[in-house]
Amino acid sequence: MSDGHDGESTVPTSEDAASAGASSTDILARQIRSGLNELERPADGLLLSGLSAGLDIGFGPLFMGVVLTLTAGLYDHAVRTFLTANAYAIGFVFVILGRSELFTEHTTLAVLPVLDRRASLGALARLWSLVYVGNVVGASVFAVAMVWLAPAYGIVERSALVELAAPLLAHGPPEVFVGAILAGWLMGLLSWLVAGADSTLSRFAVVWLVTAAIGLAHLPHSIAGTAEVLGGVLVSDAYPLTAFLRFLVVATAGNVLGGTVFVALLKYGHVVRGGE
């Protein structure tokens, strides 16, 4: 990784930030340090942490299915949508506060050291690929287990799993791509806001607020969506496996663009070049 640290950082130190009262600069410095730490982790550690995150995030779709099953016929669509959006956030709380590796966080976090010339594109590609594979495998394993176990336990109806997948499969690739850009944008903002939070409670609130918003709007998140969509595909003849694969590819591309361009590049640019 020595080739990734040849450039000189253009970001002021945290002492500079403190003296200038520049909170955004301080957040950026923290993000870059955190990104460098992740980029330098061993490959097996990244892969296992990514696998853990993929498994953990599946609890969000599971609890969404539980909510849909328990509230069927009791509440109108608006109330059920609000309740499932809050259930969706649970998986992200487990992952982000548990400090597992989530791909959509790293579309912003791991890009910043590269922009600051302290890490290489090769190191970024290594981290992205390991974390992404771990996330997708973990979420897929959880989806398979959920489809088998949840109906058997009577906590989730198969129809609820189809209902979870339907909003994400109802649109064509252009709509999924744009929605995924927004989801990636929000996840990048989440990473930025968590870095600026000064307590576990405030981090919890930020994670819950942002991810519940993603769930409320049914924005495509490539990793959480893997558990949602694959679960529905596995129990329904209406959706072929290719529908899941198409969703995954398009959502991933949109998430990367949203996190990289709308957060990493813009935040880095306005802090370093714009002097806030």
UniProtKB/TrEMBL annotation:
Subcellular location: Membrane
GO molecular function, a single term: formate transmembrane transporter activity
Residues passing through the membrane, by range: 46-72, 78-97, 127-156, 176-197, 204-223, 243-266
One GO CC term, this protein: plasma membrane
Region (Disordered): 1-24
Lineage: superkingdom: Archaea
UniProt KW keywords: Membrane, Transmembrane, Transmembrane helix
InterPro entries tied to this protein: Aquaporin-like, For/NO2_transpt
Topology versus the membrane: Multi-pass membrane protein
Official protein name in the record: Transporter
